[in-house]
């Protein structure tokens, strides 16, 4: 899975608003899913925790959309074969 760093650099207002609406517990659970992706930003304090959560939300939305696109292509191929 490709990480599009330029797209992730600035969190959109939508993702920041979503991140701000998270409870502390929900934000913590989402942060646990970072898997090293944005931890260097957290460690060097270049981003606040809300921005890091927003980056993770954007990343996961992008992954979900890519998965949906791939699934649609698979289903289209199956329908043409069957």
Describe, in plain words, how this protein is organized in 3D.
With 82 residues, the protein is mostly helical. Helix content is 74%, strand content 0%. It has helices at 5-9, 13-21, 24-32, 39-43, 49-81. Helix 2 (13-21) crosses helix 5. The two termini are 29 Å apart.
Short description:
The protein has 82 residues and is mostly helical. It is built from 5 helices and no strands. 74% of the residues lie in helices and 0% in strands.
Helix and strand topology:
Elements: H1 5-9, H2 13-21, H3 24-32, H4 39-43, H5 49-81
Mean pLDDT: 82
Q: Output the structural class.
A: mainly alpha
Secondary structure tally, helices: 5
Instruction: Label the overall shape.
Output: elongated
Helical amount among residues, as a percent range? over 70%
What is the makeup of the main sheet? none
SSE topology string? HHHHH
Low-confidence stretches: none
Strand content: under 5%
Rg measurement, Å = 16 Å
Spatial separation of the terminal alpha carbons = 29 Å
């Amino acid at each position: 899975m490709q990480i599009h760093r330029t797209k992730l650099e600035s969190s959109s207002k939508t993702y920041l608003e979503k991140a701000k609406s998270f409870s502390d517990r929900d934000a913590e659970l989402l942060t646990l899913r970072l898997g090293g992706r944005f931890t260097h930003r957290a460690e060097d304090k270049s981003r606040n925790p809300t921005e890091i959560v927003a980056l993770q939300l954007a990343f996961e939305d992008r992954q979900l959309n890519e998965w949906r696109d791939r699934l649609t292509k698979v289903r289209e191929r199956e329908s043409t074969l069957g």
